[in-house]
Amino acid sequence: MDDDAMRRFPVPDRDDLPADLRERIDDETDRAGFTPNVFAAFAYKPSHFRPFFEYHDALVEDTDLERHEVEMIIVAVSGVNHCYYCNVAHGALVRIYAKDPLLADQLVANYRTADIPEKHKTMLDVAVKLTESPVNVGEDDLQRLRDAGFSEEAVWDIGAVTAFFNLSNRMAMFADMRPNEEFHTLGREPRDD
Fold first, then answer.
1. What's the CA gap between 77 and 163, in Å, rounded?
2. How far from 176 is each of 52, 67, 124, CA to CA, in Å?
3. Which positions fall inside the Carboxymuconolactone decarboxylase-like domain (predicted)?
């Protein structure tokens, strides 16, 4: 695990972690080819690590949204929140799942001008509204999502992903989590310059 995973709290030594955390981190490291720094950072407090990643996994595995839609929400919300870690890490996942090397940069800069269907603009409008002014989200916003073609479960999932990643953004910023260098290049096509 990278000692520079976050700057404001110490990163624990992997060997000092409970067995279940070591196993979860090792599984992720094997899958990704590196240990995403969010795992090293949240390992600081094992009692928080467990429910954080359990809920994360539920959000991305038990959803009526496509995986690229989940990642689009995360990147748009993280762009509004200026979360460096999530913009970079989930930007890589948008590029991979959407098979689009440009989409993440468009979403971070201004999702409203991104090359996405109106259905996805509606989804991101509601996610950003929930991020910026949650008190103003009403039944009309949920109806806009339904009218755009999202199922009732997908409407719930849009709210759940948005809420969770607002929490995640705030913790990443509070701890000053740093994205792994690998995330910067994942899902980008080589250029012929």
1. 9
2. 17, 26, 25
3. 47-92
Angle at 56 (CA atoms; ends 178, 120), nearest 5 degrees: 90
Rounded Cα distance between 63 and 153, Å, is: 8
pTM: 0.95
What tokens were used for 128?
């950003």
Q: How confident is the model over 49-107, as pLDDT tens digits?
A: 999 999 999 999 999 999 999 999 999 999 999 999 999 999 999 999 999 999 999 99
Looking at residue 89, its amino acid is A
Residues in the chain: 193
| Residue 48 Cα to chain centre, angstroms | 17
Is residue 81 within 8 Å of residue 169, measured between CB atoms?
A: yes
